[in-house]
Amino acid sequence: AKPGLQMSNMVSSEGFMKGIPYDRPYIDVVTSLLQWSLDSGMIPLICPVGRDTRGCSVILDQTEVTAAVSRALQPHKVMFLNHSGGLRSPGRKAGTLHAFNRNTSAVLDTVCLPADLPRLSTASCLSEAERRKVTTITKILNQLPAESSAVITSADTLLSELFSHRGSGTLFKSGDPIHRYSSLVGIDVQRLLALINKSFDKTLKEDYFDSLQGRLRAIYLSEGYNAAAIITMEPVNGGTPYLDKFVVSSSKQGQGMSHILWECIRHDQGKLFWRSKAANKINPWLQNSSLHTDKAFYSHRPIHTHILHFNIFRLFHRIKQRSDHRLTFMKM
């Protein structure tokens, strides 16, 4: 069988026998062989072996081969399998890169490129091999469609990565950087309004943005206006941050954008509370993100409450509630 990979420049065979090429080759993929295999109903298994310009077979770097095949096929997802799973740190909690210095060893589940790259590149917990893989993934995603992603995960969890919404490895996505604003200056209010209205499927009150004057603490907004969060300051316990709006456009849902936005908020705010209807479908996620869940009553109506550490009874008297609402306090 012919090798499915060819090299377009000269490489010393002596260097390859030692495993150290004198110059990193550019790998040219013969896509016709891959297409023939796919058209025949077979999944091609590609060995990292190519042929140089002299016709000699040479061993290639498997990561570079993966990058070359990805450039040629433009896939929606590229998976790097190993025995250990996603990127780990002995000093962090599960989540995104903003939680990199927590006290529990767990998998880093989401990396947003290019925003997270500087911090990830300097993380002391990564091995040199992991740094090289991160660099390769960054290059791959730069040459793929915006909706493409890459995953580092264990071979044992391959099925969950392929057939579930939540995998167990580290997901790399090219995403909009998240910017923080302390006022509406520099924000296209009409684009932000359109995002909120479409996400909630209803129209905000005309005076909503005017009502933020004197209460606005921060607005988190992705560069492409695909995700946003509005934080206000409420007069509880001398001032407590309140998550007034949290929206992600439908085109970005399921791509890690909500986790990235959430970790930006958690990293900056330290504590906050929010409310949602008890029938809200995302309440399980809200519960998982809060410190404690409890049930209280206000005006003889049930309110599901997630408590952090401030006086909940003062809070009820300060915030108007509608029936069957859920108050949630952020877990740090």
From TrEMBL:
GO terms for cellular component: mitochondrial matrix. Residues 176-332 form the N-acetyltransferase domain. InterPro entries: AceGlu_kinase-like_sf, Vertebrate-like_GNAT_dom. Keywords: Transferase. GO terms for biological process: glutamate metabolic process; L-arginine biosynthetic process. The keyword rRNA-binding does not apply. GO terms for molecular function: arginine binding; L-glutamate N-acetyltransferase activity. This is N-acetylglutamate synthase.
